[in-house]
């Protein structure tokens, strides 16, 4: 699904980052439906128009959230995945929590890794955050490998941290600070 050229917030050799838009709903939800096997049981992104509209609306309108689409430059800007910074807190804390997912057609190609590096740089630069955290279910080897590859350090274990698929799930806490990237 090619896209017209657009300005990216950040750009790497193979991907560009841009914000969510209402008009991305059809492509986003189609990619989510194609990626169910990859995402489950870890992730449940919106897979229909109404759910996407609510999800994207929160990312667009809520100042405590930033949402980014990872676009594959060699594929006409097609959506390769998404990365969100949630629970952004300013003041002395200057922190946020990351959530992300690759789409099946782009998985295993390093595109989300490149996108996550761009988001971390954007968060520590333009957004002036100091710390980012990723909470990962312990059996989610792909997500743990991504956190590790992007320089996040394992900080601990939180039992029953997040409600996922109707149950409270244990998570590992991975984090990175601006100083770790310097």
Features:
eight-stranded mixed β-sheet, alpha+beta, 6 helices
What features would you describe in this structure?
Helices cover 30% and strands 35% of the residues. It starts with 9 loop residues before the first strand and ends with a helix. Strands 1-2-3-4-5-6-8-7 form an eight-stranded mixed beta sheet, sandwiched between helices. It is of the alpha+beta class. A hairpin with a 5-residue loop joins strand 4 and strand 5. The longest helix has 14 residues. It contains six helices and eight strands, in the order ββαααβββαβαββα. The mean pLDDT is 95.
The rounded distance between the terminal residues' Cα atoms is 37 Å
Shape label: globular
> SS-based structural class?
alpha+beta
Strand residue percentage: 25-35%
Radius of gyration: 15 Å
Number of strands: 8
What is the averaged pLDDT score? 95
Helix count equals: 6
Q: Which spans have pLDDT < 50 for at least 5 consecutive residues? A: none
Sheet with the most strands: spatial strand order = 1-2-3-4-5-6-8-7
- What order do the helices and strands follow? EEHHHEEEHEHEEH
What is the makeup of the main sheet? Answer: 8 strands, mixed
What is the helix fraction of residues, given as a range?
25-40%
């Amino acid at each position: 699904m090619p896209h017209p050229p657009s300005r990216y917030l950040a750009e790497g050799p193979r991907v560009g980052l841009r914000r969510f838009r209402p008009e991305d709903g059809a492509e986003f939800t189609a990619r989510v439906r194609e990626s169910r096997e990859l995402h489950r049981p870890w992730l449940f992104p919106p897979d229909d128009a109404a759910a996407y509209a609510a999800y994207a609306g929160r990312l667009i309108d809520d100042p405590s959230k930033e949402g980014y689409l990872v676009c594959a430059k060699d594929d006409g800007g097609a959506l390769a995945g998404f990365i969100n910074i949630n629970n952004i807190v300013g003041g002395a804390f200057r922190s946020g929590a990351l959530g992300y997912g690759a789409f099946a057609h782009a998985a295993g190609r390093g595109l989300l890794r490149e996108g996550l590096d761009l988001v971390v740089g954007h968060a520590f630069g333009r957004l002036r955050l100091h710390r980012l955290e990723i909470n990962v279910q312990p059996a989610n080897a792909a997500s743990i490998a991504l956190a590790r590859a992007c320089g996040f350090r394992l900080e601990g274990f939180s039992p029953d941290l997040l409600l996922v698929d109707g149950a409270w799930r244990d998570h590992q806490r991975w984090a990175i600070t601006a100083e770790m990237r310097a």
